[in-house]
Design goal:
183 residues; alpha+beta; Alpha-D-Glucose-1,6-Bisphosphate, Chain A, domain 4
């Protein structure tokens, strides 16, 4: 009887391993919004890490989070590091590409709770007097990420954070743009 139980457990583990290994190796999370402001104004919210406090979906999750800035003040070479509670973890972002009013490419490195490196891109597309902002994160799923994705939908989790961040960014930029339109 014990032998049958062990064989059953081994079969379940083998099936689980196969299912995990068959999960996609690549992932992409992408969200967009339209902001009633010129692309240059929206671009500045992303290109300067100091501006992220006003709209980042993670900034309010840990009031005690420690942040540091290094490298360039903004644009290519700017670095933002954080260390906080379990909700925000620890990591670093480095702007690797910055084309004014068009795009900002960021290397996103998570150090804790699980080490991972992903590419993040913000693009800004003028649409009349508005700007279409698209926030994209791409990366590779290792074994642990593939296993995690079986139980937690990263696309929905991160996508939800992107939606919150873009909504906050929209509010910040449009609030700042409104006085300029009246004046």
């Amino acid at each position: 009887m014990a032998k049958k139980i062990l064989i059953g457990i081994a079969a379940i583990v083998a099936i689980l391993l196969v299912v995990i290994l068959l999960q996609p190796a690549d992932f992409k999370v992408e969200r967009s919004t339209t902001i009633a402001a010129p692309a240059a104004e929206v671009f500045e919210q992303v290109n300067d890490f100091h501006a992220w406090e006003a709209w980042s979906p993670w900034a309010t999750r840990d009031p005690q989070m420690k942040t540091t800035y290094a490298g360039s003040p903004s644009g290519k070479g700017a670095i933002y590091s954080w260390s906080g509670n379990d909700d925000v973890g620890e990591g670093r972002m480095t702007i690797e590409e910055s084309t004014p009013g068009e795009k900002v490419g960021i290397k996103l490195e998570f150090l804790k709770p699980m080490a991972a490196t992903h590419a993040t891109m913000f693009t800004f597309k003028p649409e009349g007097e508005q700007t279409l902002v698209t926030w994209t994160m791409t990366g590779k799923n290792g074994f642990m990420s593939k296993a995690f994705n079986l139980f937690m939908n990263i696309e929905k989790m991160v996508g939800g954070d992107f939606e919150k961040g873009l909504a906050k960014m929209k509010a910040v930029v449009e609030r700042r743009a409104a006085p300029n339109e009246k004046g």
